Sequence to fold (147 residues):
Amino acid sequence: MESSFPQKSVVAVSVDLKVNDQSALFVLLANDGCINRMGNGRVNEEENTLCIGRTDLEVFQGLVQQAGADLLACQGQFADPSPVGAICLLTIAFQYEDGTNSGSEWRYGAESQGPHPVIRDFVIAAVAATEPWYKQQMEQRRAAPLP
Fold:
């Protein structure tokens, strides 16, 4: 991707996927190390537990570096006029240091073509960036379940 994305001004990135109005994936990374992650993209999985904590700033920086002008060109709302399969709603949002936001929202069917490849690649990158931390959190929860 091109590097003209305003990386220095991004303070938070989020990815939110709902399938048939049920949360399937949520990722939030901020430039202060804050991380939230829930799910793996599938509904009704045991991993649909929200984990909140802190991680290395490199996780946030690495994900923001995955963004580029191609991703910014995909801003706005998009809907598949003839979705096939479960209805998916994918939202990607960026918050900037000046308080403004940008992003995109994609409504499509689980068996349809889905979002633009740039969007799919960014979602995959967000999951990959947060997966080691999320796996560790889930292992800790399994080892010491809440009462």
Remarks:
- The radius of gyration is 15 Å.
